[in-house]
Amino acid sequence: MSEEKNITDAEAGLLQAMASQVPVDDFSVSEGEPLENPENKATREQLIEALRTVCDPEIMINIYDLGLVYDIRQYESGNVDVDMTLTAPTCPVAGILPGQAAAALAALDGVGIAKVTLVWEPAWTPERLTEEAKAILEMF
User: Fold this and answer.
1) Distance CA 16, CA 82 (A)
2) Quick check: pTM over 0.85?
3) Contacts of 49 (CB under 8 A, 6+ apart)
4) What distance in Å separates the CA atoms of residue 21 and residue 7, rounded to the nearest whole number?
5) Average pLDDT, whole number, for the chain?
6) E strands, the chain, where?
7) Exposure of 19 by Cβ count < 10 A (0-12 exposed, 13-18 middle, 19+ buried)?
8) In 3D, which of 107, 97, 108 has the Cα closest to residue 44?
9) What is the pLDDT of residue 20?
10) pLDDT at 2
11) Where are the alpha helices (DSSP H) in 32-118?
12) Do residues 26 and 16 lie in contact, with contact meaning Cβ atoms separated by under 8 Å?
């Protein structure tokens, strides 16, 4: 129950900061449990595919192809850290997407604790879109 309260408090703080249009510096969400056997870690491709299952609900393009994922770090323990951003600090799904990304990663066999941190530097720009996302958005 205390973990749910912490997530709720963190989301409330993030939403309050978004309302004032001030980026939140250290918002992160963790999911999963330590791996018992970290020798069988998920591959980088599996991590990317898991992140591609998380879509921005406003435009229905996944966070990876939108270019919202800045960095994926996988450790010998099987834990994974991801830095991601949003298209704008006032994005209405700011409190949801990082948690969905952490949950998608943690659900993979070969991933221990998945931590997703929301970052604002560098700022997101449309140049970060993959060719697939550009095609969906009809940006040529």
Assistant:
1) 23
2) no
3) none
4) 21
5) 85
6) 27-31, 55-56, 61-62, 69-74, 80-84, 114-118
7) exposed
8) 108
9) 45
10) 46
11) 44-51, 97-106
12) no
